[in-house]
Amino acid sequence: MLIGDLSRRTGVRPHQLRYYEAQGLLEPGRRASGYREYDDEAVLTVAQIRKLLDAGLSTGEIAYLLPCVTGPDPDLAPCPELLDTLRARLRGLDEQIGTLSRSRRALRGYLETAERRAPAERPGPEGTGPA
After folding, report:
1. Model-level pTM?
2. What is the mean pLDDT of residues 96-102?
């Protein structure tokens, strides 16, 4: 199938499919005319890529893991590179969550302090707002 057909079957735009190819995630054949030609397996591969992207994995990580992936969910076979990559990604997410939580606490503290110190709003002339 041509790239437009793959795009319609997967809901992924052609420019994204070309990007996946550039990242080594899809390997289409080429017709004599130079057009990309995808087999039916590409539909499954694109579904796997999309779900792994939704899980927060980068295309580089996905390229590394794709040989371990089967099925549309995708199912991940326990190959060594899979476990190491997923653990590293999870550690990175945990660190980001920790950083965001600390930032949130700090900002909340600044806001609470500023709100306590702010003078009470007083109505302006004839109740039109702050003076």
Report:
1. 0.67
2. 96
